[in-house]
Amino acid sequence: MQSTEAAAITSPAEPVGRYRWRICALLLAATTINYIDRQVLGVLAPELQKIFEWSEVQYGYIITCFQAAYAIGLVTAGAVIDRLGTRLGYALAIAVWSLAAMSHALVGSVAGFALARFALGLGEAGNFPAAIKTVAEWFPRRERAFATGIFNSGSNIGAIVAPLTVPIIAVTFGWQAAFLFTGVLSAAWLTTWLISYRPPEQHPKLKASELALIRSDPPEATERVPWARLLKYRQTWAFVIGKFMTDPIWWFFLFWLPKYLHSEYGLTLLGLGAPLVAIYVLADVGSIAGGWVAGRFIKMGWSVNRARKTAMLICGLCVVPVVFVSQVQNVWAAVALIGLATAGHQGWSANIFTLPSDMFPRRTVASVVGIGGFGGAVGGMMIATFTGFLLEATGSYVPVFMMAATAYLLALGVIHFLVPKLEPAQL
């Protein structure tokens, strides 16, 4: 059987197809839409706060509802997708978040927006578990990291597209249209997915040679390791605490930056586009550079432990200057400081996401990532509520930027304390 598969892969008579990359393109589109949908509220927040007269605390509660649902979804989505299968599981997730996104246009109260955000968080939590499972089904092991990197870039693309398109739609057609438009994008993707997606063995457009390539890896161990067992290891807690301390900073940037730029520099809805795009382009650069730096150190002969932590240190230091952002008067100086911080975060994220694969066997990596994602979402809930109360009481963002400046170095200290050599967990 193996010799037959090898012949199918290398046979000049039947070159290996590339249909699997069409599936990857669908995952990229879904992740982009995912981030556009979650960004709409943040981009429109200054205008919606005027229309509905939300207090800062109320806005914080609305964001907290999304984070709470996202945390719950990260715990449950994997099991649901495993039970239903990738095709139906992914369809269910995007159907829920599509309807939730559009439902924002129908509400007008704090409770209504909170409920819509909760539903959006539940649905959106299914995106990454479903996409990662799809990659595992459609790609051989040697191509999975590249395929994952491609679809994951949709997070930064979505963060760039939202401030470019949402203000124009809102100004031209009303704020409700912005939520309806992104929901329609999700619905269009869902239709395409249901029509075109089948498991590789059942797909009529997949060549036998490409299927042989996809299934060319040795069988992987599938024994499930319960969460309760993983929580006994300090390697798990190093990842969870690192995510808990640093993910909230990214959530703050996503949901509060438009409000900050509006309140501090008087930017209008249309004026937010260029600064936000610049910030998230820098974040994209940081994501690529952070992973490249660690890989470069390893190629130089450094140990994985030294290379990974040095790269994380560099990324953490890039966030430190954000503490001075409240002291600058020019909006583009502020954009430069915040952009450097978001670049640092994304570089940090590229490295911290590799820690589970550095320390755990492959069959447990997804579970450890899920636990860490839950920890990060809980941290996001806390910073959303804290920021709301802080702004209501003081009107100052300074304490939050101080937290951002110190969070990464403190998190790296905790990680190094718990896993000084990134030694593998002995399951």
Short recap of the structure:
Its main location: membrane. 79% of the residues lie in helices and 0% in strands.
Explain what this protein looks like in three dimensions.
The protein has 427 residues and is mostly helical. It has two domains: 1-216, Growth Hormone, Chain: A; 225-427, Up-down Bundle (Growth Hormone, Chain: A). Helices cover 79% and strands 0% of the residues. The chain contains 18 helices and no strands. It has helices at residues 2-10, 19-52, 56-84, 86-103, 110-124, 127-138, 141-152, 154-173, 175-196, 208-214, 227-230, 234-265, 273-299, 304-319, 331-352, 355-359, 362-394, 398-418. Helix 2 (19-52) runs parallel beside helix 4 (86-103), helix 2 runs antiparallel to helix 5 (110-124) and helix 2 packs across helix 8 (154-173). The chain is globular. The chain starts with a helix and ends in a 9-residue tail after the last helix. Mean pLDDT is 88; it is low at 1-13. This is MFS transporter. Its main location: membrane. It holds the Pfam family MFS_1.
Helix and strand topology:
Elements: H1 2-10, H2 19-52, H3 56-84, H4 86-103, H5 110-124, H6 127-138, H7 141-152, H8 154-173, H9 175-196, H10 208-214, H11 227-230, H12 234-265, H13 273-299, H14 304-319, H15 331-352, H16 355-359, H17 362-394, H18 398-418
Helix pairs in contact: 1-10, 2-4, 2-5, 2-6, 2-7, 2-8, 2-9, 2-12, 3-4, 3-5, 3-17, 4-5, 4-6, 4-9, 6-7, 8-9, 8-13, 12-15, 12-17, 12-18, 13-14, 13-15, 14-15, 14-18
